[in-house]
């Protein structure tokens, strides 16, 4: 089953509605002193729900962005933040810098990160790649132009 951004957005709005209901009910009731702490706890829980609604909303946006972008497709995986820093052992890939792990041989599989950069080498050849792969390209491709695709396409100085 595929989860859609719309489904996540629906969860987010249900969490928002629930938050509002709890706040209205528990925040306005004139409580006995003995009950007050419990209503405070309920209001505190509503704060967590509000936070959860935001996270769900972000997850929906990120998922929608991912679905709308082509994938990098380089022949090997990278750490999205650190680039060519993965070691693979016994089917588990680990970034040597941040220690993040993936429970599959990420290093040995084609990259499935979204394309975020367009790189043009001095000969004019364009390659599209993800955040992680652009790090290695920066080190290897002197004189290339790096354009970030989702930030209005600006040229960045090397
Ligand atoms: Zn890393
Ligand atoms: Zn990549």
Summarize the structure.
The chain is an alpha+beta fold.
Looking at this protein, list some descriptive labels.
alpha+beta; 4-stranded antiparallel beta sheet; single chain; 3 helices; 2 domains; 158 residues; 3-stranded antiparallel beta sheet; disordered C terminus; 15% strand; binds zinc ion
Shape: elongated
Radius of gyration: 23 Å
Mean of pLDDT: 90
Order of helices and strands: HHEEEEEHEE
**What fraction, in percent, of the residue positions are helical?**
40-55%
Major sheet summary line: 4 strands, antiparallel
User: Stretches where pLDDT falls below 50 for ≥5 residues?
Assistant: 152-158
Q: Bound compounds, please?
A: zinc ion
**Strand element count:** 7
- How many structurally independent domains? 2
Oligomer: single chain
Strand order of the largest sheet: 5-4-6-7
Quickly count the helices.
3
Task: Supply the helix-strand structural class.
Answer: alpha+beta
Strand percent estimate: 15-25%
Distance between the termini: 43 Å
Structural overview:
The protein has 158 residues and is an alpha+beta fold. Helix 1 runs antiparallel to helix 2 (33-68). The protein starts with a helix and ends with a strand. The chain has three helices and seven strands. The chain has two domains: 5-68; 86-156, no CATH class. Bound molecules: zinc ion (2 copies). One zinc ion (ZN) binds at residues 72, 74, 78, 111, 113, 129-130, 132-133.
């Amino acid at each position: 089953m595929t989860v859609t951004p719309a489904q996540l957005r629906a969860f987010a709005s249900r969490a928002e509605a629930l938050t509002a209901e709890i706040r209205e009910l528990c925040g306005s009731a004139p409580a006995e002193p003995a009950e007050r702490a419990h209503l405070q706890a309920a209001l505190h829980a509503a704060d967590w729900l509000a936070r959860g609604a935001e996270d769900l909303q972000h997850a929906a946006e990120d998922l929608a962005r991912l679905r709308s972008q082509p994938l990098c497709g380089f022949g090997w995986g990278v750490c999205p933040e650190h680039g060519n820093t993965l070691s693979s052992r016994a089917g588990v890939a680990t970034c040597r810098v941040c220690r993040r792990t993936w429970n599959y041989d990420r290093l040995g599989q084609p990259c499935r990160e979204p394309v975020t950069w367009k790189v043009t080498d001095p000969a004019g050849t364009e390659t599209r790649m993800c955040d992680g792969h652009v790090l290695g390209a920066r080190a290897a491709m002197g004189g290339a132009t790096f354009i970030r695709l989702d930030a209005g396409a600006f040229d960045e100085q090397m």
